[in-house]
């Protein structure tokens, strides 16, 4: 609706931009943004305003404020990956997806917080500190939580956003922007989307360019899209998808942006429920929500079948081997020589490298580098890396078989439970948490399939729970159509945040699911 | 003492002659200002991705075909990891698992006993050709305790040509490399000038007794010319033989050739064997090549590489050119080698032949002896010759028409070298070198001489 509002002149891009910027300031305690690009954003908004005045907006995204995860290169704006290694690093180029958004007139408000180098499932392990889930401060959560202390401050029981794209999810969830880019390697867009009650889309591998996305695992990374509703995700997808000559892993086929139909009849649909996703540790609450969702489809006439993805239980270890191996390789370039942090140690090149990398990387990154190098050693390569590649093939084939049997879309939970309080979450280390939390989302990355989190309901603690749909390769249109139908059925409630209310002049909360399309 | 069998294999890196680098669009150029030809990808800026350069693939296919290789229709790229200042990404992209071309051969010729008259043909097997990135250059400034890094060369395309250990000595290796050089230059796939680092050769050397298994081999690096290649290999063979005969052992090590001392010395220890932790390059899909049979009907010609199409367009290789020279002009095989060995000499020869009535078999002598020795004496290339083919042809025509003697011709040539712009005819007239055919004139001259030197004539007659 905000795009319509812009078009009709009910609000101007600069007003919109300024409101978002001041909302960012008043929600600073969320720590969702690492860098706020106030000056450039306002300039972009002004340029957009000119275009609207002339009646020549570039498209639906013209003037729309967006945020970008801080592992995407943005020319002239610091790109840190929440790491000391890249603190102060100003990239000379824009990632393709960033460029595409800017070319459409979008207004880049800033770079969002994440786990360092996107390694983590909490957005708690970056050098700029953890991101707080906006729902921690929502009326819905506060009503349900047992008051622990009488203090007025916002400290006590705030919950995590999930990760690693927590900053982007929080930004969208708290209305400081209308869409955000995240990245998804093992669930890093869908996980925080679920915890923050927003739509998180992981597109098919090869659909959207990775040029300019600082890689974690090149063979699994995709840019992710976070929005407040499925229609918005489709719009952003439409502006981003397509072949990029700068990324040799993007497909050559022409991509046609699509509008989502309003599905009314689901009787021709076949929904698969993979039994292995009833994973150990899945909260009974989420199990119930999942069941209800399956019933929803069935009652509406869809065919709902139980299916099996037998190799699911091997995906964590398989992912661990392949991910750490690629990480070890991708991080080899950070030596302090050409860019980024450089240690003062200058006794020799080797010692400079070692000191730079010790100072620049946190424990999580270093741990994965060491593991990865171990798996890539000549004596281990066959046993670990090659084996893991084979297992990956088996996991991917599980999906192929299921989709070939007539299933259109799979329905699974996105997370094992609702968002954990920060103090609980940090009791276990990053590796343990990632292994636990990624179980429901990883397989889609291994198979390169599109998947989307749709906010479904609130938990007993008043926190968002989302469900995941996994679709066929390059069938985003079908996937999003089903997701949109589901979204309409569940009518997920809007977050009730003080700060948002203060800043709203009818634009944000115009409708229940405040979207921009 | 039992005889020793030396075994020599070669690893040759040839820089691909292309406008831009293997995976990025920055320019390829020799001796540019430091760090002026470096793209974001070359500098390993985070988030950049490799994009394969078509021309580099074509160069590798051409080279593979010229070396009788099987071209792999599907080849793969890998990352080879090690840390070094001139390797910004911390890994090199190469083809370790499945290279672009395998199982070829190279024929080369040697003179026996240094006589050009007896040539023997040998063959060396080509194990494979792989595409890979070149590294940057690092210059160690010990006085200031610093290392200066220039990334201009980082990412330039290389073809690594691996020659099996079928050679036995420095001379064979040198001849094989020379032939490879000529082939690359003829194809245009590499300019292959060793002095500019466009062709780098490492030699693997070992010795053993006949009937016994191969000995431990050493790798010899830092060889900057074909002449030094032969020297380095021969030195290393001798060193190994002496070492073993004195009861020592050969270490599997890397040694550098010191051209000043003429010997090989162990290189700075690389801390034991390196584990390069090879991993498939995830950002590059397998390289698929087509031939006429496998080419899909609706494929855009610009998008694919057709091996057969390239094969049809290969230029004549040196061996073919030599045969043609022998056939067409009746020169000796060893002449054809010299003609091709000198850049531009064959063309020069053919130009002269076109413009003169003198038979090619006679022209060749003037080319190989007079012209070539003069150029060598003054360290000139054929292109820099002050005597052009036309000038030489004019001179030879005078000789052919018997207007001058061959001694006179040599005199004229000596004058022509001065490059003062005079034609042979002018020089002949100036120096009165014409052959006289007029009987009366000759008699007059002889009489005049006799008259002048009466005493000597009388002495002679007595």
Automatic annotation (TrEMBL), chain A:
Pfam families: Amidase. GO terms for molecular function: ATP binding; glutaminyl-tRNA synthase (glutamine-hydrolyzing) activity; transferase activity. GO terms for biological process: glutaminyl-tRNAGln biosynthesis via transamidation; mitochondrial translation. InterPro entries: Amidase, Amidase_dom, AS_sf, GatA. The gene is Qrsl1. PANTHER family: GLUTAMYL-TRNA(GLN) AMIDOTRANSFERASE SUBUNIT A, MITOCHONDRIAL, TRANSAMIDASE. It comes from Xiphorhynchus elegans (elegant woodcreeper). Residues 20-480 form the Amidase domain. This is GATA amidotransferase. Keywords: ATP-binding, Ligase, Mitochondrion, Nucleotide-binding, Protein biosynthesis, Transferase. One of its GO terms (cellular component) is mitochondrion. Transmembrane segments: none annotated.
TrEMBL record, chain B:
GO terms for cellular component: glutamyl-tRNA(Gln) amidotransferase complex; mitochondrion. SMART domains: GatB_Yqey (SM00845). Signal peptide: none annotated. One of its GO terms (molecular function) is transferase activity. The keyword Cytoplasm does not apply. One of its GO terms (biological process) is glutaminyl-tRNAGln biosynthesis via transamidation. Keywords: ATP-binding, Ligase, Nucleotide-binding, Protein biosynthesis, Transferase. It catalyses: L-glutamyl-tRNA(Gln) + L-glutamine + ATP + H2O = L-glutaminyl-tRNA(Gln) + L-glutamate + ADP + phosphate + H(+). Residues 347-462 form the Asn/Gln amidotransferase domain. InterPro entries: Asn/Gln-tRNA_amidoTrfase_suB/E, Asn/Gln-tRNA_Trfase_suB/E_cat, Asn/Gln_amidotransferase, Asn/Gln_tRNA_amidoTrase-B-like, GatB, Gln_synth/guanido_kin_cat_dom. HAMAP family: GatB. Belongs to the GatB/GatE family. GatB subfamily. This is GATB amidotransferase. It comes from Xiphorhynchus elegans.
